[in-house]
Amino acid sequence: MATNEHGVDALLPGRLGMVVRLVSHPGARLALLDAVNRYADNLEQEPGTEAFVVSLDPEDKDVAWLVEWFTSSEAFDDHRKAHAFAELMKELPNLLSQPPAILRMDPLRMFIQKELVDGAF
């Protein structure tokens, strides 16, 4: 990982990642986001979960997207065994109108602008 005057630039070999599409019941996206954010509040218990990004779908008010990646397949297994993840999995069936759509990916490179790294956002 290189840090310079522009930000952080890192190659990410060996990572396992995914993009997850979550479709809430009509009008229930806020409840879904509440559950996902409570889960995210406990990510320090998953040191191998290197990135977790929650995004809103600008075209569908019932959809949220997650982008997440893990330092290794073992870290992914630890994520799936974590208590906070188990709690989230108990909540999701009542909030989702369909099963999550999961697209597997292997992150290759990351760049973060200096302003974000420095906390100036």
Strand and helix layout:
Blueprint: E1 2-4, E2 7-11, E3 16-23, H1 29-40, E4 49-56, E5 63-70, H2 73-81, H3 83-95, E6 101-105, E7 109-113, H4 114-117
Antiparallel strand pairs: 1-2, 2-7, 3-5, 3-6, 4-5
| Low-confidence blocks of residues | none
**Beta-strand percent range:** 25-35%
N to C succession of SSEs: EEEHEEHHEEH
**CATH level 1 class label:** Alpha Beta
> Whole-number average pLDDT?
93
Shape: globular
Radius of gyration from CA coordinates: 15 Å
Outline the biggest β-sheet.
Answer: 4 strands, antiparallel
Characterise this structure.
The chain has 121 residues and is α+β, with helices and mostly antiparallel strands. The chain has a single domain (9-107), classed as Alpha-Beta Plaits, CATH 3.30.70. Helices cover 31% and strands 35% of the residues. The protein has four helices and seven strands; from the N terminus they run E-E-E-H-E-E-H-H-E-E-H. It has helices at 29-40, 73-81, 83-95, 114-117; strands spanning 2-4, 7-11, 16-23, 49-56, 63-70, 101-105, 109-113. The strands form two sheets. The protein has a four-stranded antiparallel β-sheet with strand order 4-5-3-6. A hairpin with a 2-residue loop joins strand 1 (2-4) and strand 2. Helix 1 (29-40) runs antiparallel to helix 3. The chain is globular and about 45 Å long. The model has no long low-confidence stretch (mean pLDDT 93).
Summarize the structure.
This protein has 121 residues and is an alpha+beta fold. It is built from four helices and seven strands, in the order βββαββααββα. Strand 1 and strand 2 form a beta hairpin.
